[in-house]
Amino acid sequence: MALQEAQSKQQEDRRLRIVDRTMRMHGNEPNALIETLHAIQETYGFIDLDLMRYVSDKLGVPLSKVYGVATFYHFFTLKPQGEHTCVVCTGTACYIGGAKAILDEIGKTYDIGPGETTKDNKLSLLTARCLGACGLAPAVVYDGAVSGKQTPETVMNTIGRWFENGS
Ligand code: FES
Fold first, then answer.
1. Ordered DSSP codes for 56-121
2. 166: CA distance to ligand 1 center in Å?
3. pTM (2 decimals)?
4. 67-92: per-residue pLDDT in tens?
């Protein structure tokens, strides 16, 4: 379990490194805001308040402005309402590795597509373009923790537990 947590943390750091790199490439300046939000959207699949705060601090942009930009443009998705989130990476390595089969299985079982939440608000499904963990393709993020080498079966097991436990 400790190993799994350490691996999740490492994957998390990879995603954050992609975001950091984007900010650095733009001089860590306020005008990097839109590019940075794009990088977050592509790696995390959504933009949540913690990430907005992080960007606000790093770029010296008021949180209200970060929030305003993130909510203004339709191509940005705020963290969805579902109790649990599942982000399937659809970047090239993951797509080739079977991301579509994973999405199809989730869609068939829970009747949702990317960007949607089940009617009971239990599960939100999202996609990301690359989580920075291509060596682990196909990768899926369960409630913020990255898991690699996923299959439709492993995904169904993990998500199924959320529904079984009622949590
Ligand atoms: S393409 Fe999925 S982690 Fe890079």
1. HHHHT--HHHHHHHHHHSTT--BPPSSSEEEEEE-SHHHHHHTHHHHHHHHHHHH---TTEE-TTS
2. 30
3. 0.84
4. 999 999 989 999 888 999 999 999 99
